[in-house]
Design goal:
Blueprint (H helix, E strand, L loop, with lengths): L6 E2 H7 L4 H6 L11 E3 L6 E3 L5 H15 L6 H10 L13 H4 L8 H12 L3 E2 L1 H6 L10 H4 L6 H11 L1 H8 L4 E2 L9 H6 L12 E2 L1 H12 L1 H6 L5 E2 L13 E6 L10 H12 L4 E5 L8 E3 L8 H18 L10 E3 L1 H8 L6
Parallel strand pairs: 4-7, 8-9, 8-10, 10-11
Antiparallel strand pairs: 1-2, 2-3, 5-6
Helix pairs in contact: 3-4, 10-12
Bound molecules: zinc ion (ZN).
Zinc ion binds next to loops.
Length: about 350
């Protein structure tokens, strides 16, 4: 297999190509989890090579609970939960049951443990896309809706993924690739092995996208993690009248203030989920990217960065329209919550 493009810190130190003063400023050769620290080619980032590193799992679990709207469980509590129970899967919080497992972590009260369980109990129902998104897997979260479009069964999704390989990821995401040689160089040998990918059998044609490869490998590495706790989730079934026609996708970015009558973003998202889950797949995106259809903003107060970004995209669209070539440029709309809802009503079946 080809050589890895990144060095371990140990190799970097051994190479003696840099002054001691520089090397002394770097992290230890190994992460606290015991795995090697790697450094990128440009020396701009040091990272732990272990995809199941406790620190990474803690970060992901914290983000997961924030995304779910579960309160009072920050980094130190998440770390205690994962560490004391010997768990390396952030989704394990869904499998936790104080009646069977006792307290959440050493020294935690039963009252707090039960309160946490009660909060989780209320969050078990979600779409497959949401289930994948809350896992906060690198590079996947904002693409979850597109990635699993047409699926409400994770096993079926993986079956397709493993049969079709990278091309399946590209098709789902609607991205094209280009000719790349030496695909094996994208990851270290350990990562390929961990992902269980046989490079010779990998179904890729001439045109593969690097993004698709990364997503594919990530999905394979965390396959067990995603499947392990699925039984504790009520995945909302897709309602499609015609099997061949998946629900339309609308990408929405939401500003901090959404406008009345909603108190906040979460309140608004809850309403949309309840009201539109049968007729449109809403892809929640964190920033105004080129796939954004609507930016929800109350229109009150100072313009946020998101609003400015959307305005810029709108003028770009207007210019393109004048020139008569709007291909590949979306017309973004800025709307308050009520107008956003009115807009989405069009997807409701009569
Ligand atoms: Zn680590």
């Amino acid at each position: 297999m080809g050589k890895a493009k990144v060095l371990t810190l140990e190799e970097l130190r051994k190479a003696k190509a840099f002054p001691k003063e520089f090397l002394d400023c770097l992290a230890e050769n190994k992460c606290v989890c015991g795995a090697d620290h790697y450094i990128t080619e440009t020396l701009s980032m040091i990272y732990c090579s272990n995809p199941f590193c406790l620190e990474k799992m803690v970060d992901r679990q914290v983000s997961m609970l924030v995304d779910l709207g579960v309160k009072n469980m920050g980094a130190s509590k998440c770390k205690a939960f994962l560490r004391d129970n010997g768990i390396t899967n952030p989704y394990a919080i869904f499998a936790y049951d104080p009646a069977e497992d006792g307290v959440l972590y050493d020294g935690c009260s039963m009252k707090f443990s039960k309160a946490m369980f009660d909060q989780i109990e209320e969050k078990r129902s979600m779409t497959l896309a949401d289930y994948i998104a809350i896992g906060n897997l690198p590079g996947i979260q904002t693409r979850a809706t597109k990635l699993v479009q047409g699926f409400d069964d994770l096993h079926a999704f993986y079956e397709e993924l493993e049969t079709e390989g990278i091309m399946f990821v590209q098709n789902q995401l609607g991205i094209k690739g280009k000719r790349v040689d030496d695909v094996e160089d994208f990851f270290t040998d350990d990562i390929w092995e961990l992902a269980g990918v046989d490079l010779d059998e990998l179904a890729y044609e001439d045109a593969v996208s690097i993004t698709a490869i990364q997503i594919y490998v990530t999905l394979m590495i965390y396959k067990t993690q995603l499947l392990e706790c699925l039984d504790y989730i009520d995945i909302i079934e897709l309602v499609t009248e015609d099997e061949d026609e998946p629900l339309p996708i609308v990408s929405i970015c939401i500003s901090t203030s959404v406008g009345e009558p909603f108190e906040n973003k979460k309140d608004f998202v809850r309403y949309l989920t309840k009201e539109f889950r049968d007729c449109v797949q809403i892809n929640y995106i964190k920033s105004v990217t080129k796939e954004c259809d609507i930016l929800i903003w109350s229109g009150k107060g100072a313009k946020t960065g998101k609003v400015l970004a959307a305005e810029e995209k709108i003028s770009k669209y207007m210019r393109a329209k004048e020139e008569g070539d709007t291909q590949g440029i979306k017309e973004i709309k800025i709307m308050n919550a009520i107008d956003g809802i009115k807009y989405l009503e069009r997807y409701k079946k009569q």
